[in-house]
């Protein structure tokens, strides 16, 4: 084990949930472990058996690995208490995955480590509960109804002005999300839901979509960047591109930052990362979903490029372990082992001074025969990362959820405008040859 000789004196990091066996999640895990080890933090990773087995190569960098189901209520906290009673030490508890955030909060509370209140994390994980809390505090919110049956949804549609959005109460990746234009389309929308559990119907918000990426340092929310989103044409809401920092007037940016930081305080979040989605409408900011983690779709890599010197995970470890006296703009002084570069020294601004963009391939459905121009794109010096997620012989499905996208190109540039144009240019230069 890389840090066995320091176990008695070094703080230890418990990383709950590990990674899902997909490249995005594995990349996050590798970066999180590298930035922990750069700080001399021994790491213990827990997760479900099948996911640990599928990500074994990345887990080789961990000091210990244990099978614990983070989706089972209370299981991780009970396991951690047993380990602490046996003499193991956990000074910080962290998770990369959305579905592990409740387990992290429960575990941190159980063992006395820094963390968010479990009730606050449960609230933001339950979309309608988060909507109610924000609306009660005076934030603009679309009206929403938790529905158990089609009759519940029909009643809400009948009593409100459309269009509406039908979505699962607790899911990710645009799974089961669709636009409903009228009551006649409700049966088809309900068919798209992933299971028979209660679901949500909410008013559609007409506005440009953004997300806010940031961290909570010393309990204070600090915005790192606002990300502009591009989504596929309704009725589905699959994200096909992100650009940061969003090019917004100063007044709009300031208002977004003000509302997001106030909302996080209202909801009771006090540590870790955050990713808050919102709409900018003619009437102002309307807050969407709130997450106690970094955004997906490679936003962690975009941040690491656009904010020079930022260590997206190391900064959070330092805060949880009280290793630095944070000002508005400080971060750790170590150099990470991979990705993200050298951390800025004391006083370095945590703000985006370069541009980054990711754009996804969304070719027409069909059986893939060949891909042309791919190797040329991969060879470009401004490409930070690129992947294809389909191979010849496989089927490209209609675009209904994030998993239906065919790959992506992530680029860095001197500013957001150049990043946006370059990502689009590279994606459009690749041809997918298909048969029906």
TrEMBL record:
InterPro entries: ATP-dep_AA_Ligase, ATP-grasp, LAL_C2
GO terms assigned for molecular function: ATP binding; ligase activity; metal ion binding
Residue span(s) of domain ATP-grasp: 131-321
Keywords for the protein's UniProt record, in alphabetical order: ATP-binding, Ligase, Nucleotide-binding
Superkingdom of source: Bacteria
Classification via Gene3D superfamilies: ATP-grasp fold, B domain
UniProt cross-references to Pfam families, sorted A to Z: ATP-grasp_4, LAL_C2
This protein's name: Carboxylate--amine ligase
Species name: Streptomyces gilvosporeus
Lineage: Bacteria, Bacillati, Actinomycetota, Actinomycetes, Kitasatosporales
